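the two lines:
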Amino acid sequence: MNNFWTVVRFTVMNKLKAKAFIISTLVFLLIISVVVNIPYIIMQFQGGGEDKTQTVGYIQDGQSIGSVTGQQLEQYFANIEGSKLTFKGFATSGNAASDEETLKSELDAGELYSYLQFGEATDSGFPEIIVKSEKLLDYSVASQIESALQVIRHNNILSEAGLTEQQMKELQAPIVVDAVQIKGSLSAGGEGEGKTAEEQGVNMGIIYFIIIFLFMAVMISGQMIASEVTAEKSSRVMEVLITSVSPLTSMFGKITGMFLIVIIQLASYLAVGAINLSLPHNAEMLKELNIDLSVVDPMLLVFAGLYFLAGFFLFATLYAALGSIVSRTEDLGNAVMPMTFISLAGFYIAIFSISTPDSLLVKICSHIPLFSPFVMVLRLGLTDIALWEVLVSFAILLVTIYLAVVLSAKIYRTGVLMYGKRPSMKELRKAMKAYKI
Amino acid sequence: MNPLVVNNVVKHYADKTAVSGVQFEVSKGEIYGLLGANGAGKTTTMRMILGLIYPDQGEIKYNGKPYSNELLKNVGYLPEERGLYPKIRVSEQLIYLAQLKGMSAKDADRSLKYWLERFEVPENYNKRVEELSKGNQQKIQFISAVIHNPQFIIMDEAFSGLDPVNVELLKATVKELRDNGASIVFSTHRMEHVEELCRNITILHRSKEVVKGSVKDIKSKFPKEKVWLQTKEEVAGLEQLSGVKAVHRHENGLEIEIAEEKVAAQILNHALSQTEIEHFQVKEPTLNEIFIRTVGDRNE
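prediction for all of em together
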């Protein structure tokens, strides 16, 4: 036990002192600080342009379908309060080419943001419309015009059909349906009233967060554990180490040490993110988002924590075993590839299923050990899951961890003394029989 | 009963036998020499003694008891290849290794400083291993094996990479450890070290013991087949004597290979009849020659 903590302390201290670790952590902290503040920064830049309206020009000749449309648009946008688009008609000179020249010169002079060109009438009841602008790929004017024309047409047809104003209002009144999730009596989440849409939103956010947190923890620490083991092996310190401390103690000491490191690292990311968010200029924005963390079900957090720990431990032991098989750092990438794919798969299944937490895929995957830490959080947070299902899934996970520990310890015990080429499965199996752990 | 007893151990790897029936005992205050060509099974034998791998057959007893984790604290290991963290400071890693051996950080620090002082490299305390020269790294590696004052010390090629001055320094240290009562298993290719340090040796060849016993006995078992002759003037006709196999002329004397020991007397008489003799010696075979003969012969 004493040796265990010696290994843990050594692992943690060395990592914390390593330049590469310090620098990469600092860089990441910096990136987080910038990213968190990006909305505010962007807003600052837009600040000036906020009230500026964009003027769109068109040629007004009185009766052509184009100028009628233009007029309709002009009226429509004029009636919308706070609209950033205004339209301005220019009298025609009778010559299409010189008309366009006029509009172009206005555009150059900065009077116009863009201008419209009308073509032949189409089935839509409106002519072909081309928005010409000096801006690259500026679709916002075009899309605003599109939706405006939709409304205009809608209203025109309705009023032609002889609907009264009252009827038209009724047609346009929004319909509201609230989705409230309720709990069954065997639910895992404890007593509760179910989740409102708002709570579900918050839960979804929390779940995103937990899944990403677990994924990062597994990826970062898994790689670190595997490469530490390989480094010890390639520098042959391992030979000295295993004559001092049992391989099992050394493996779990390392895993625990890395766990602490990852928690420290991710916690510092979180802390910096939180500090940045609570800066005065960001606090307002946060308030606007209206996130109430108190609606999070504490049972969700408890289960998520358990799954997080179990998942981390499972992946870490397997990574350690893989690291012990190869003897050179260059070969490590290949060896840990399968683990990387599995964790990626679990991560993506969870992320992509977040809108369909009831699908069969999720149900199955929430019982597959290497996936369940990712996927089960989904079901816990977003669906009404029976307690026994969670317990079964967790039990499967625990049994797998036990098997993985035994297997990893054996591989580790065997692997750390095997140099040269990567051992084949057969060699490994044979060698493993020679050791008691 | 001797502290370390290796009893008829056998180890097979996948399809080849690494060690077959090796047996020896090391008493308190003894350095036991384990010799052999590359791949003869020395390292496997040492690893079995260290408990890193278990013998397929046979047993190893430490103070009369079988291997246990408790024993680890009493064992020091100097591996053949450098086994240190390249990027970590000497003080940090040696104190760590000593702590794993059950020392307190304070004792470990004191012991480390003593050894660095002893090896005349106290300035290495705060350096990273990768900054050190090969010889200095070997000193640090040596310290890592003995810092906790172990009862059993396993040394695989202890003096590789050292200059003659440092070899003497470490040799003296090894002798001191021996005199303090450690049981040391020592492997090397350098026969002159073995002759100086080891009481008993085993020469391994292709996983089997081929020569075993005390250095003295082994030497006496091999016939004396060389004569060293230094004379005032040239001696003619040595080659024609029966029993003389070859005559090597060196700068200041002759080395004569003979078939039997009694031929030596004939050479002496032959030379005396021609000139004055400055030096005449019937040479014992060196361990080097014995090694090459036993291992080399079987190679053919």
